[in-house]
Design a protein that fits this description.
Layout: E1 2-9, H1 13-24, E2 33-40, H2 47-57, E3 62-66, H3 72-82, E4 87-91, E5 95-97, H4 101-110, E6 116-123, E7 154-156, E8 165-168, H5 170-175, H6 195-205, E9 210-220, H7 229-247, E10 255-256, E11 259-260, H8 261-276, H9 280-317
Parallel strand pairs: 1-2, 1-4, 2-3, 6-9
Antiparallel strand pairs: 4-8, 5-9, 6-8, 7-9, 10-11
Helix pairs in contact: 1-2, 7-9, 8-9
Length: 319
Amino acid sequence: MMISVILCTYNRCQSLATALTSLAAQVLPESVDWEVIVVDNNSRDQTRVVVDGFWRQNPERFRYLMEPQQGKSFALNRGIREARGNVLAFTDDDVTMEPTWLHHLTAGLRSGDWAGAGGRTFPERGFVPPHWLPTEGRYALAPLAVFDMGADTKELTETPFGNNMAFRKELFEKYGGFHTGLGPRAGSAGPQKSEDSEFGERLLAAGEQFRYEPDAVVYHSVPPNRMQKKYFLDWWFDKARADIQAFGVPDPKWCVAGIPLRLFRRLGVWTLRWMAAFKPSRRFECKIKVWVLIGEIGECYRSRLRAKQLAATRCDVQP
């Protein structure tokens, strides 16, 4: 059995060095072979130098790949194609992990009992949320890549987060790779989310089973620029657009200009709640809901325009 850890990176050589140091300290049974594949998506900093330093120390463990096609999904798919492992684990260049992270994350997959697995992602140690940030909901800290479903091992009925997930490699051969129209892409003005959730939903819809591994713990960095209201609003707006692209328009039978009527109703309700809320965290929570709905409404309308343009193009080429 062999495990390949795939880590895609773009212009984050400092945090990458920290992540690779954490990966180098992973502890697994001697019977398990494993590798770390760093996929550089056209970085212009010292990424190659950082990876080469780890490769020189352990050439059998660390590998460097350059993916010239810009976009995280292209980099992920390149890593998948080049991976030698039977089990593929995924993480990011701005995390650190417990030394037993990889062992716990992949244990159920190595036995063949599960198709995929996801672990817990916490904010970096010492993180204190600002007073305006709601923290009660399961996905309240999703813009910080936080995922926590408790301390009990169980079946995972939703998609894990991309910084802490693993799948058997055969699933990519069976269902295809990550959607290249989704995911982060430098210089893109479009939505840059949902490549991981779209892939996970594809597998769940096919009947594959995932396992939640609470002892597979990573810590995600929280740089100062992410602790701003604008970052959270932009993230949720972008996520809403990406989800419409990934999963389609909800309630397509009851639409005006391609926009489901219920989205207008919800927008009115959450706008009123935003205006009436007094507590800072509750007020910002309502504002986030408004931004999500605006993103969904805008993307539904754009989807309708794209469909009309495609239909017109098809008509133009008919003999």
